[in-house]
Design goal:
The chain is an alpha+beta fold. The chain is 29% helix and 41% strand. It is built from four helices and seven strands. It has a seven-stranded antiparallel sheet. A hairpin with a 2-residue loop joins strand 3 and strand 4. The radius of gyration is 15 Å and the shape is globular. The chain starts with a strand and ends with a helix.
C-alpha cells in the first residue's frame, strides 16, 4: 500500500525566485544543510544529496518546466525505496502558491516517516528565507533516526 503527502504554502515572492530557491545550491544549503548536485533544468538529469559524505537520497529529473513545475524521482538509499516528488509553482496576484506532492511512498515505511517530518520543515524554511532573507534553523532539535519512528 502506498501513501502520499501534499503540502501547500503561500509565499510573498515570484515564481522565478521560488524556482531558484528550489533549484539553486546556494539556497538549498540554507534549508537542506547540504547542497544537492543536479541540473534541475534538464529532463533525465541525475541528482543526489550527500549527508556526512555519503549519498542519502538520489533520483532523476522526470520533468522540468521552469519556473512552474519540477518532477523528480526520490530514492532513499537506506531503504532503496523509490517515490516521486512534484513541485508546482503558481503565481496568484503578488503571491506564489508552492505545492509539493511526495507520492508513491510505502505506507508506514521509515522513508514515509522521514518525509512527514522533513517536508514541513523544508517548505517553512523556503518561505521564511524568501520572505525575510534569513533561513530558519530547519533541523533544530530533530534527530531523524529517532523522531521518524514517532511519525
Amino acid at each position: 500500500m502506498t501513501t502520499e503527502f501534499v503540502y501547500a504554502t503561500y509565499i510573498k515572492s515570484t515564481p522565478a525566485k521560488v524556482w531558484e530557491a528550489i533549484t539553486s545550491q546556494e539556497f538549498q544549503r540554507q534549508y537542506w544543510g547540504d547542497g544537492i548536485s543536479a541540473d534541475w533544468n534538464k529532463k533525465g538529469s541525475k541528482w543526489h544529496k550527500e549527508t556526512s559524505g555519503a549519498c542519502s537520497i538520489h533520483g532523476e529529473v522526470l520533468e522540468s518546466n521552469p519556473p512552474k513545475r519540477l518532477v523528480i524521482t526520490w530514492v532513499d538509499a537506506a531503504e532503496n525505496s523509490t517515490s516521486k516528488v512534484t513541485y508546482e509553482i503558481e503565481a496568484i496576484e503578488d503571491l506564489v502558491c508552492l505545492n509539493v506532492v511526495h507520492s508513491g511512498l510505502e505506507a508506514g515505511s521509515n522513508t514515509a516517516g522521514k518525509v512527514a517530518i522533513g517536508w514541513p520543515r523544508v517548505i517553512s524554511c523556503i518561505k521564511t528565507l524568501l520572505e525575510t532573507g534569513k533561513p530558519l534553523n530547519t533541523w533544530a532539535g530533530l534527530d531523524m533516526n529517532h523522531d521518524k519512528d514517532a511519525a
